[in-house]
Design goal:
Oligomer: single chain
CATH class: Mainly Alpha
CATH superfamily: Tetracycline Repressor, domain 2
Helix content: over 70%
Structural class: mainly alpha
Strand content: under 5%
Radius of gyration: 19 Å
Number of helices: 9
Distance between the termini: 59 Å
Largest sheet: none
Length: about 180
Protein backbone atom coordinates (compact mmCIF):
# COMPACT_ATOMS: atom_id res chain seq x y z
CA UNK A 1 0.00 0.00 0.00
CA UNK A 2 1.34 3.42 -0.95
CA UNK A 3 2.12 5.87 1.80
CA UNK A 4 -0.25 8.86 1.94
CA UNK A 5 1.26 12.26 1.41
CA UNK A 6 1.57 14.07 4.73
CA UNK A 7 0.90 17.77 4.87
CA UNK A 8 3.40 20.06 6.53
CA UNK A 9 2.86 21.35 10.04
CA UNK A 10 1.43 19.85 13.20
CA UNK A 11 3.07 16.78 14.67
CA UNK A 12 5.39 16.38 11.70
CA UNK A 13 6.96 19.77 12.38
CA UNK A 14 7.09 19.02 16.09
CA UNK A 15 9.07 15.86 15.34
CA UNK A 16 11.48 17.77 13.07
CA UNK A 17 12.08 20.52 15.66
CA UNK A 18 12.56 17.98 18.44
CA UNK A 19 14.93 15.91 16.30
CA UNK A 20 16.99 19.02 15.52
CA UNK A 21 17.34 19.76 19.22
CA UNK A 22 18.32 16.17 20.02
CA UNK A 23 20.73 15.88 17.08
CA UNK A 24 22.45 19.06 18.28
CA UNK A 25 22.57 17.82 21.87
CA UNK A 26 23.55 14.20 21.24
CA UNK A 27 24.57 13.93 17.59
CA UNK A 28 22.97 11.86 14.86
CA UNK A 29 24.24 8.43 15.88
CA UNK A 30 23.39 8.84 19.57
CA UNK A 31 19.84 10.05 18.87
CA UNK A 32 17.33 7.26 18.35
CA UNK A 33 13.87 7.40 16.87
CA UNK A 34 12.59 6.28 20.28
CA UNK A 35 14.34 9.24 21.98
CA UNK A 36 12.72 11.64 19.54
CA UNK A 37 9.27 10.14 19.94
CA UNK A 38 9.57 10.03 23.75
CA UNK A 39 10.37 13.74 23.72
CA UNK A 40 7.44 14.43 21.38
CA UNK A 41 5.11 12.18 23.37
CA UNK A 42 4.23 9.88 20.51
CA UNK A 43 4.57 6.27 19.46
CA UNK A 44 7.15 4.85 17.06
CA UNK A 45 4.37 4.13 14.56
CA UNK A 46 3.59 7.84 14.38
CA UNK A 47 7.20 8.48 13.36
CA UNK A 48 6.89 6.07 10.42
CA UNK A 49 3.61 7.68 9.41
CA UNK A 50 5.55 10.88 8.70
CA UNK A 51 9.03 9.62 7.78
CA UNK A 52 10.38 6.56 6.00
CA UNK A 53 13.58 6.56 8.04
CA UNK A 54 15.76 8.44 10.50
CA UNK A 55 17.96 9.43 7.53
CA UNK A 56 14.97 11.07 5.84
CA UNK A 57 14.23 12.96 9.06
CA UNK A 58 17.87 14.05 9.34
CA UNK A 59 17.74 15.42 5.78
CA UNK A 60 14.67 17.47 6.75
CA UNK A 61 16.39 18.70 9.92
CA UNK A 62 19.40 19.85 7.91
CA UNK A 63 17.12 21.51 5.36
CA UNK A 64 15.27 23.36 8.13
CA UNK A 65 18.55 24.36 9.79
CA UNK A 66 19.72 25.96 6.53
CA UNK A 67 16.35 27.58 5.92
CA UNK A 68 16.34 29.20 9.40
CA UNK A 69 19.98 30.24 9.07
CA UNK A 70 19.40 31.66 5.59
CA UNK A 71 16.30 33.52 6.83
CA UNK A 72 18.22 35.19 9.66
CA UNK A 73 21.02 36.05 7.30
CA UNK A 74 18.75 37.51 4.61
CA UNK A 75 16.82 39.57 7.18
CA UNK A 76 20.09 41.01 8.46
CA UNK A 77 21.20 41.81 4.92
CA UNK A 78 18.18 44.02 4.35
CA UNK A 79 19.52 46.47 6.93
CA UNK A 80 23.16 46.47 5.76
CA UNK A 81 24.23 49.49 3.78
CA UNK A 82 27.96 49.17 4.37
CA UNK A 83 30.49 46.41 4.80
CA UNK A 84 31.07 47.50 8.39
CA UNK A 85 27.36 47.10 9.17
CA UNK A 86 27.43 43.67 7.55
CA UNK A 87 30.26 42.48 9.78
CA UNK A 88 28.69 43.89 12.97
CA UNK A 89 25.22 42.47 12.28
CA UNK A 90 26.27 39.06 11.02
CA UNK A 91 28.93 38.26 13.62
CA UNK A 92 26.38 37.20 16.31
CA UNK A 93 24.44 35.14 13.75
CA UNK A 94 27.64 33.42 12.65
CA UNK A 95 28.78 32.78 16.24
CA UNK A 96 25.43 31.20 17.17
CA UNK A 97 25.47 29.03 14.06
CA UNK A 98 29.03 27.89 14.75
CA UNK A 99 28.03 27.09 18.35
CA UNK A 100 25.12 24.97 17.08
CA UNK A 101 27.28 23.31 14.45
CA UNK A 102 30.05 22.72 16.99
CA UNK A 103 27.62 20.77 19.17
CA UNK A 104 26.65 18.64 16.22
CA UNK A 105 30.13 18.39 14.72
CA UNK A 106 31.69 16.11 17.31
CA UNK A 107 28.93 13.57 17.03
CA UNK A 108 28.60 12.96 13.31
CA UNK A 109 30.76 11.54 10.58
CA UNK A 110 33.11 13.93 8.77
CA UNK A 111 31.27 13.40 5.49
CA UNK A 112 28.06 14.76 7.02
CA UNK A 113 30.00 17.69 8.47
CA UNK A 114 31.41 18.47 5.02
CA UNK A 115 27.96 18.22 3.45
CA UNK A 116 26.50 20.58 6.08
CA UNK A 117 29.31 23.08 5.54
CA UNK A 118 28.79 23.00 1.79
CA UNK A 119 25.04 23.26 2.29
CA UNK A 120 25.49 26.34 4.46
CA UNK A 121 27.57 28.07 1.82
CA UNK A 122 25.10 27.21 -0.93
CA UNK A 123 22.19 28.39 1.21
CA UNK A 124 23.85 31.75 1.82
CA UNK A 125 25.08 32.38 -1.71
CA UNK A 126 21.83 33.93 -3.07
CA UNK A 127 21.71 36.37 -0.14
CA UNK A 128 25.31 37.46 -0.71
CA UNK A 129 24.57 37.87 -4.41
CA UNK A 130 21.59 40.11 -3.56
CA UNK A 131 23.79 42.18 -1.26
CA UNK A 132 26.45 42.61 -3.95
CA UNK A 133 23.74 43.78 -6.32
CA UNK A 134 22.20 46.06 -3.64
CA UNK A 135 25.57 47.70 -3.06
CA UNK A 136 25.99 48.20 -6.80
CA UNK A 137 29.44 46.64 -6.85
CA UNK A 138 31.02 47.75 -10.11
CA UNK A 139 33.06 44.70 -10.99
CA UNK A 140 33.38 42.95 -14.33
CA UNK A 141 32.86 39.58 -12.62
CA UNK A 142 29.29 38.26 -12.50
CA UNK A 143 27.61 38.79 -9.08
CA UNK A 144 26.97 35.05 -8.68
CA UNK A 145 30.68 34.32 -9.08
CA UNK A 146 31.57 37.17 -6.72
CA UNK A 147 29.12 35.79 -4.13
CA UNK A 148 30.86 32.41 -4.31
CA UNK A 149 34.28 33.99 -4.02
CA UNK A 150 33.20 35.97 -0.97
CA UNK A 151 31.60 32.99 0.75
CA UNK A 152 34.28 30.40 0.08
CA UNK A 153 37.05 32.87 0.83
CA UNK A 154 35.42 33.94 4.08
CA UNK A 155 34.87 30.31 5.00
CA UNK A 156 38.56 29.54 4.51
CA UNK A 157 39.45 32.62 6.52
CA UNK A 158 37.16 32.16 9.52
CA UNK A 159 38.02 28.47 9.86
CA UNK A 160 41.78 29.08 9.89
CA UNK A 161 43.73 28.72 13.13
CA UNK A 162 45.26 32.18 12.73
CA UNK A 163 41.83 33.80 12.46
CA UNK A 164 40.44 31.88 15.42
CA UNK A 165 43.28 33.20 17.58
CA UNK A 166 42.61 36.87 16.65
CA UNK A 167 40.87 39.30 18.96
CA UNK A 168 37.43 40.58 17.85
CA UNK A 169 38.80 43.82 16.35
CA UNK A 170 41.46 41.89 14.42
CA UNK A 171 38.80 39.53 13.07
CA UNK A 172 36.62 42.43 11.97
CA UNK A 173 39.55 44.14 10.24
CA UNK A 174 40.58 40.90 8.54
CA UNK A 175 37.07 40.28 7.20
CA UNK A 176 36.65 43.86 6.00
CA UNK A 177 40.04 43.74 4.26
CA UNK A 178 39.13 40.47 2.54
CA UNK A 179 35.70 41.69 1.40
CA UNK A 180 37.30 44.88 0.11
CA UNK A 181 39.84 42.94 -1.96
CA UNK A 182 37.11 40.86 -3.62
CA UNK A 183 34.48 43.54 -4.17
CA UNK A 184 36.60 46.58 -5.05
Amino acid sequence: MARKAVLEGGRRDEIIVTAMKLFFEHGYEATSVRMIMNEVGGEIGMFYHYFKSKDMLFDMVVERFFKEYRGKFETALLTCNTREELVKILTPIYEKSMEDFGKLKGNIHWTVQAAMHEGTLLALKPAIQLLIEKWGVDNSTDSEILAGQVLYGLSATIHSEAFIKMDPKGKESCILDFIGRILD
